[in-house]
Every structure is written in C-alpha cells, then in structure tokens.
Amino acid sequence: MLSLTTSLAPLVLASLLGWTGAVKMFSRGTAQQAPKTALARMLRSSERATTVLRATGAGELLIAAGLLVVPANPVPGAAAAVLGAGFLAYLGYGRAMAPESSCGCSAREDTPITWRAFARAAVVLVGGATVAVAQDTWWPAVSERPAGALAFLAGAAAVLVAVSADLDRWWLLPLRRTRLRVIGHPLLGTATDQVPVAASVELLENSLAWQAAAPVVRSALLDHWEDDSWRILQYSGVYGDRENARPVAVVFALDATAGRDSGGDPIVRVSYVDADSGEAVAVDELNAVPSRRILPMAG
Is-above-0.70 flag for pTM? Predict the structure, then answer.
C-alpha cells in the first residue's frame, strides 16, 4: 500500500494543483474574488492581488505538468513542497491579519480561512515532499494494479473534496437539504415545513431586496408572523429628507421554508407603510428622495 501511495502521489498532487491553478489562471471569478481575499489586504490593492493570484495559478499549472510528465524527477515535487509551505505561511498570516477574509486558494471561495484551507496546503506540502523523495512514476501503478489504484484515487479525491470549501455546493449543501427534508430542522422539533426566524433574517439580509431597502431601514427586526406560506418580517424606517422625514414600517415577505441550504435566490417582497397614516407608501415617493433610491422588488 505504501508503494502504491508514493507511486500515485504525483497524479493526486497534479490533479489538485492543476484544478486550483486553472481556476486562478483562467476563471473570470479571480478578479471578482480578489478584493475579498486576505491577499488584497496584504497588498492593499485588488489589482495586485489579482495579478499575484493569476501568477500563482500559472506556477501551479507548471508544477502539475511536471508531476504528470516527469514524476520521477525530484524538481516538481520539491517545487510543490515549497509551494505548500508558502501557502501555509500565507494562510497563517492572513488568518491573523484578516480573519474575516477568504484565502483565494481556488479563486472561488468567499468563506473565511478555516482549518480546511490549512489542511489542503498541508496536503500540497507533504505530497510534494513525498514525490521529491520517492521519485516514482505513476503510470506503472495504474497499469499493473488498476483496482488498487482506482480505490486509492477515489479515497484521495474524497479527502480533497472534504478539505475544499468551494466544492461544498456540489455535495455538502445537497446533503444538508436532504437531511432537512427527511428529519426536519433540529430546532423545530417535529415541524418540517419552516425554518427558524433567525435563518429567515439571515437569508433576507443577504438578498437584493434588503440591499435596495437598506437606506430606509432604521432598526433591527421588530416583529414577525406567518401568513399562509409567507414569513413576514417588520422593521422601522425613515423616508424623506432631514426636514421632512417621516417614519415608515418596512415589511418584507419571503418563503417561510426558505433557508441558506434551499439553493437559489429567494423571492422577497417588500412594502413600505406610513407609520402615522397606515397607508402604503409608493415606491415612486421613495425614489424621489435624494440618496434614498429604492428599486421596486419584483414578485
């Protein structure tokens, strides 16, 4: 088993570096994700961060090609080990300096740096060192022991998927949705058709409807209730300029069963009610107020 592991290590490592390198190098999301990374904070420039990410991607692709073509040569493995050590140092510094930022490891992650990023970097370090020392080729192992090679590669792929947060949407989120459908939400006892109010609030605050209404909202959640399949969330707000400011109730309605694991953007309805008269405030009235533009929400 040990010989099979060392023989196939170049193939596993090349797959990982080839994937992350290609995403950094060619994905349009690299420029979009760069401002959210700890690297942008370090370099104090999103443009420089984008350049460094793409350059790193090119280096990963080069190392991956070397691992596939000349796996018995110690240079690609040593380069991968150095790259893994660099990743660990960057992650440690980034975690300390900007814990809320993502690492940009695959230019698709927008979650903060966690142990999973460190684990993947450690895989690169250990895998590179193993390849550099063993200097084995991978194709004899695949041709001579296909069943064992397939089992090993499947297990390695499972490990890499588990430590890659940007792949959660392909397996972890569907798994969570299935669990909720089968056993219901753990905070709701036997109820299976609703989610906690806090989850609805979190979903709302990440929606386009909330971004549009945010200039008017002036409070945290004040009240909530259910109406058929809708969850109603009420906030207080203010519209008008400083001299003619009027209090308003901002009311959002969204699917009572929607949560973070539901997938897709939720349908959110928003309305504004004058707190004094109780009459609905037309969106055009809000649009007419300078710096208070509210976009109409489609049902």
Answer: no
Per-residue pLDDT tens digits for 127-144: 999 999 988 888 888 888
Residue 261's CB is within 10 A of a number of other CB atoms, namely 17
Between CA 20 and CA 233 the distance in angstroms is 41
Q: Report strand pairing: 246-255 vs 230-239.
A: antiparallel
- DSSP single-letter state for residue 153: H
CB contact set of 150 (below 8 Å; sequence gap of 6+): none
In 3D space, the residue among 258, 279, 276, 90 whose CA is nearest the CA of residue 185 turns out to be 258
Within 10 Å of residue 36's Cβ, how many Cβ atoms? Answer: 21
Per DSSP, the three-state class of 62 is helix
- Round to whole Å and give the CA distance between 270 and 297: 7
- Residue the block writes with tokens 């949560």: 259
Q: Within its chain, how far is the Cα of 283 from the centroid?
A: 33
Task: Find, among 218, 210, 238, 213, the residue nearest to 294 by Cα.
Answer: 213
**Residue 253: its H or E element:** strand 246-255
Q: Which amino acid makes up residue 73?
A: N
DSSP string for 19-31:
HHHHHHHH-THHH
